[in-house]
Specification:
The structure holds two protein chains of two kinds. By secondary structure, chain A is an all-alpha fold. Chain A contains 13 helices and two strands. Chain B is mainly α. In chain B, α10 crosses α11. Classes of the chains: A mainly alpha, B mainly alpha.
């Protein structure tokens, strides 16, 4: 087991280094930071001094090692546009992304799983067909289009909910959160629903196919033959078994949600890290883009590592693989 | 020799068994064919050429649907801020969106299938390199990879096609490899190897035709995925250039006017986009269901 974990750790480390190299060298070709930071009054001499100050006069590999060295000490460089340490910018906006993603995940699970179990059990009923049709429409509709419709209906026509911004925030554990106040929750509603619609549709489909698979297993027939009540069968035999794949995929999807929030955050002007990334791409704020992509990459490498180790824990066949 | 007539006959029989008795899937297929025809014929059937700045009149800007334009024609779906007829813009946008998605899906599939076959035939370090690359790709969300690519290479129609190809190939390579590996266990491959038939011939002549079916099932899903991804990236302003709007960019342009009540600029491209993806997805769902023996046996019970 320890050997397996060490091997995975080794793979993850290589993956992290390769990805950080790709991101760093890839983005090196984008824009010239000296041109970005200088204005018309800069002389050639000023520009050269600026380049030296930014360390851009050194060879590429040396720049990478300087950057990687700083990264390990928590220094991701300074944003050109905001003129502040990148890590501060990202950490400041991370809570906004986390709260919106978690809320969306909770809504998705709370609505999607019951809908999926229902349409799996009553596969041929009219209600199940209608639910399945709506989830097909739901996952066929691009996220940004759903967002526009939500804004049109709930913010423009009905004027029930605000369409942009984070509203009032309150402090908890020294971090600003929106979900602690009614105003903040109102601002969270539309972006969270926007992110959740896709989740609901995916969970419904997952839970439906899971339910159908398990419904015809022999132990289900046996449980029914024993005369166990319907509710108990659903709770004890069905739910527990379909939860295994759902938990796995939900775990993997947390990372996906944070990545996907880029679109939602941009449309609803939600001040999270996704909006920060897109704004930085548009303004060619290279340090922020590089740091965001490297951090997100590290997060995915870490999530994949944890999932691999957990699988090995659950499944001895993987553990003893050569 | 391959009997093409016989092949065609089995293919049409298969198509029949996929679609008969499934009105929603048939509707989806018909809808998709109509969209493709509109996209192909756009230069001839669109009321104006929305990319030709000479025919655009700023005086016609922001007219609601069914209003008369300066040159006496009617604009059925209204105009946008620069006086572009929305109906024409949607037709041309559909053309661009479908073109990008078709090219990306096709190239992505070719690369994926080729690498999958190569991994299966060669084994060894070739296989490990390819499958490591697949693992690398599959463990990241596609939209993020595309953003990363576009941040590196800049925007444009060709760039977005590259970004989409990166998103398509990996899962196909993985599926082709596993499908080809199970084919490799069969005796006729051993026979071919003993007869010293070169690897590339085994790949193309035996493995390709016999292991491609499960991969082909993924085509419609990839196509609709590419259409949605392109629309999203263009909407975010990192996709196609502003002079040649795809459906996503048209929606983005109209988004600025939504709050002032000018709903038609975004609504019509959006409706076309959603219906297009929906048409493909219902067909894709049906094909998948048809090819999943487990689901089939369940529906019979």
């Amino acid at each position: 087991m320890i050997k397996y974990i060490l091997k995975r750790l080794w793979h993850s480390g290589i993956l992290a280094i390769v990805m950080s190299l790709i991101v760093f060298f890839g983005l090196y070709v984008v824009g010239d930071p000296v041109e970005m930071l200088s204005d018309d009054e800069f002389t050639e001499q000023d520009k050269i001094e600026l380049a030296i100050e930014l360390g851009l006069d050194k060879p590429l590999f040396e720049q990478y090692f300087t950057y990687a060295g700083g990264m390990l000490q928590g220094d991701f460089g300074t944003s050109f546009v905001h003129n502040r340490p990148v890590l501060d910018l990202i950490m400041e906006r991370l809570p906004a992304t986390i709260e919106i993603s978690l809320l969306a995940m909770i809504i998705g699970l709370a609505i999607g799983i019951p809908l999926g179990i229902f349409s799996g059990i009553k596969n041929n009923s009219r209600a199940s067909k209608i639910i399945s049709f709506f989830t097909t429409v739901g996952y066929s509709t691009p996220n940004f289009w759903q967002a526009i419709i939500l804004i049109m209906v709930f913010a423009v026509f009905l004027q029930w909910l605000p369409a942009s911004g984070r509203g009032l925030t309150n402090s908890m554990f020294g971090i600003e959160w929106a979900w602690l106040s009614l105003n903040g929750l109102q601002h969270m509603a539309l972006p969270a629903i926007n992110l959740a619609i896709y989740k609901i549709c995916m969970q419904q489909r997952l839970a439906k196919s899971g339910t159908q698979e398990i419904l015809y297993q022999e132990y289900m027939t046996f449980a029914r033959a024993k005369g166990i009540s319907r509710n108990r069968i659903i709770r004890r035999h069905l739910l527990r078994n379909i939860l295994i794949p759902i938990v796995t995929i939900t775990g993997l999807e947390v990372g996906g949600l944070i990545a996907f929030s880029t679109v939602t955050e941009t449309i609803f002007s939600w001040p999270g890290i996704g909006k920060l990334l897109l704004d930085s791409i548009h303004m060619i704020d290279r340090p922020v883009v590089v740091a965001y992509l490297i951090l997100i990459t590290m997060m995915f490498v870490f999530i994949n590592f944890v999932v691999d180790v957990m699988y090995a824990f659950l499944d001895p066949r993987i553990r003893h693989q050569k | 020799m391959i009997d093409y007539k016989k092949k065609l006959a089995t293919l049409s029989l298969q198509t029949k068994s996929i679609f008969s008795g499934h009105p929603i899937a048939i509707a989806g297929l018909i809808g998709f064919v109509i969209f493709v025809l509109i996209a192909l014929l756009a230069p001839w059937i669109a009321p104006q050429n929305p990319y030709d700045l000479k025919v655009l009149d700023i005086m016609d800007g922001l007219l609601p649907p069914l209003s008369k334009l300066g040159n006496g024609t009617t604009s059925w779906l209204g105009t946008d801020a620069v006086g572009r007829d929305i109906l024409s813009a949607v037709m041309y946008g559909l053309r661009l969106s479908l073109f990008v998605a078709f090219v990306a899906t096709t190239v992505g599939f070719l690369i994926g299938v080729f690498l999958g076959l190569l991994a299966a035939v060669k084994g060894g370090w070739v296989e490990s390199v390819i499958m490591r690359a697949v693992d690398l790709k599959v463990s990241f969300p596609g939209i993020l990879l595309a953003l990363m690519m576009l941040a590196i290479f800049g925007t444009g129609v060709d760039k977005i096609i590259y970004a989409l190809i990166i998103g398509v190939w990996a899962s196909k390579a993985r599926l082709t490899r596993s499908s080809a590996l199970s084919e490799m266990q069969k005796e006729y491959i051993d026979a071919a190897r003993i007869s010293a038939i070169p690897n590339w011939r085994i790949m193309l002549k035996f493995l390709l035709p016999n292991s491609i079916a499960p991969v082909l099932v993924m085509v419609p899903m990839s196509l609709s995925g590419c259409i949605g991804a392109e629309a999203t990236l263009s909407f975010l302003g990192v996709g196609v250039p502003i002079t040649e709007p795809s459906l996503g960019l048209l929606i983005a342009n109209g988004n600025d006017y939504l709050l002032s009540g000018k709903w038609w600029i975004s609504l019509f491209p959006g409706l076309v986009l959603v219906s297009l993806v929906l048409c493909i997805n219902v067909v894709a769902d049906r094909i998948r269901e048809h090819n999943n023996p487990f689901l089939k046996s369940m529906n019979m019970q």
